[in-house]
Amino acid sequence: MNQIAAWRKRLVDFLFPVQSDRWLTFLRFGLGLQIVLYTLSLRNDWNYLFAATGNGLVTRDLAEALLPLENGFVPRLGWLVALGAHLGVQEETVLLAAWICLFCAGLGLLVGLFCRSFAILAWFLHLCAAKSGAFVSYGVDDFMTIGLFYLMLSPLPDRYSLDWRLRKLQPKNVLLLGFSQRVLQLHLSLIYLFSGLTKCLGSGWWNGSNIWRALTRPPFDIIPPEIVVRWHSLLPIVGIAVCLIETGYPIFIWLKRTRFLWLLAVVAMHAAIGITMGMYLFALIMIVLNAAAFGAGVFALTCAQPGKARGETIASVPD
Amino acid sequence: MRTKSVCLAWFSLHFLLLVTVSCRETLWLVARRLTILPGGPGSYPQKAEGVAAAILGQHLAASNPLRQTFATYLGLSGIDAGYGYFAPNVANSYRLLFELHYPDGHTEYRLPRVNRPAAGLRLASLLEQIGRTQSDALREYMVKTLAGSVWREYPEVKAIRATLAQMVQPTVADYVRGKELVYEPLYTYDFSLDSDSIQQSNQ
Predict the structure, then answer these.
(1) From the CA of B194, how many Å to the nearest CA of chain A?
(2) What Rg do the C-alpha atoms of chain B give, in angstroms?
(3) Confidence category of residue A319, pLDDT binned at 50, 70, 90
(4) Least confident of A103-107, A255-259, B68-72, B113-117
(5) Are the Cβ atoms of A194 and B8 closer than 8 angstroms?
């Protein structure tokens, strides 16, 4: 029994560390920026991508109809359009309003005004778009949903937000600061573990052919193949490096000695994906999540003595 | 103490689901022999995939409240899919080419288009889903919808032929030898305003 109690205590100590709210600033600001860029990048295609039959690229109705039956309670744009129709508002106007609200939520998160409300609004509207546009969604949407879900549940506001500075609001339960960050850290570790493991199981990552294919595959072929081929002897090294960085992440990101190196490697990897494959939003969301999970600790000069950090919110950990 | 207990309970369930979804996707790949590991029907990975699906309640009826609760939670938290991006290997991409036939007999070629590169990535994702779907009806419906978007742009067109092709990339060695990207036609659909008919041919 004593051993079980000891294990439980160790687990609790691990999951509820004393933590400043610096990481939450990274997450809020980063996700705000991500939402703003996401909406701006789709401003000319928003209605085209999400309209229903007759007006869009593919019908939104089809994507919503094909959402698994058991996902009946997952939000979708069709709900908002139906509500708008009930009030006599056209689909086009409802979609535009959704875009504007999402953009404003991004701005709100960026400056930290009405953090909680905007985090919930951003999560809801982005999820609506991701699910209604299931046919046109890709990895960036999964990670934005994950990030916004955690942000929404985190003890907002952080000290750099306008909510704190102007509205004098403070989080009600600072105990959750360390816990929320731990959850994000563990989630990222699992993401890279499975992503790396699955890559290791593909032969193309060991001989570099997957790097070649990824870089020359439309629409990711930003670098002309004749340039990539000049560096073809490096492709296996890059492929193996990607496998090592991702599979090693759940170990080396937790070790103090290797944390900075691994964070640098993973950020460089995502930046390279963004630049060489044109996946800027995907690169940004991954860098934001990494920066929030592990970057805040790495770059914080005062983190060595959290209890003495100047004026920062520190969670007390009562038993 | 109560807050901690609630957090611990949520954490346990959340990560159980997260690990199960990720394991199921990896096992799915292995079971279908898409990795370097041995798999196939009746193999250990396939059985393990069944166990993972059972944990997620996917063996229950779609109307089962437990299954619905799990599925909804997975969707809301964004953990309903695994993380095998570009893995185990980078798959071929697809191209949909529209052949526009005008009443005066001339023909033009168009690709589905969007306004900005960010939406272009989404379009590529759409074409991938059209190319990969096993459902002929769904594929035809989606191609027809895309053809409709082209028709709205060129209303004077009499008929449209849509060809879905798989892009086969050359290897580095083949590229050095001068081989280029090849488009292998998979399906062709003919849409006509006159007869409102659709004809499909698989190639």
Answers:
(1) 19
(2) 23
(3) very low
(4) B113-117
(5) no
Nearest to B121 among A12, A54, A279 (CB): A279
Chain B, window 39-58: residues with a beta carbon less than 8 angstroms from a chain A beta carbon: none
ipTM above 0.95, yes or no: no
Confidence of residue B42 (pLDDT cuts 50, 70, 90): confident
Q: Do residues A140 and A116 both lie within one domain?
A: yes
**Interchain contact A62–B (C-beta under 8 A):** yes
Q: Which domain holds residue A162?
A: 19-172
pLDDT tens digits along B1-23? 788 999 999 999 999 999 999 99
Structural domain total, chain B: 2
Handedness of CA B97, B102, B104, B108 (dihedral sign): negative
Cα B5 from Cα A315, distance rounded (Å): 17
Residue B158's domain comprises 93-202
> Rounded to an integer, what distance in angstroms lies between the CA atom of residue A96 and that of residue A102?
10
Q: Which of B36-40, B54-58, B145-149, B190-194 reaches the highest mean pLDDT?
A: B54-58
- How far is residue B129 from each of residues A63, A145, B82, B122, B150, measured CA to CA in Å? 12, 21, 17, 11, 19
Count of the separate structural domains present in chain A: 2
Nearest to B11 among A15, A74, A232 (CB): A15
Per cent of chain A over pLDDT 70 is: 91
Boundary of a domain, candidates A172, A191, A223:
A172
Q: pLDDT digit string (tens) for B97-136?
A: 999 999 999 999 999 888 888 888 999 999 999 999 989 9
CB pairs under 8 A between A and B: 218
Residue A74 is assigned to a structural domain of this protein: yes
Question: Is the CB of B181 inside 8 Å of chain A's CB atoms?
Answer: yes
Q: What part of B 101-140 touches A (C-beta under 8 Å)?
A: 112, 114-126, 129, 138
With beta carbons under 8 A apart, name residues in chain B contacting A139.
85
On whether both A46 and A147 belong to a single domain, the answer is yes
Q: Which residues, at least 6 apart from A319, have a Cβ–Cβ distance to it below 8 Å?
A: B1
Let me know whether A314 and A244 are in one domain. yes
| Closest Cα in chain A, distance from residue B171 (Å) | 7
What is the C-alpha separation between A81 and A129, in angstroms, rounded? 12
Alpha-helix residue ranges (DSSP H) falling in A42-169? 46-50, 60-65, 77-86, 91-111, 115-132, 139-153, 162-165
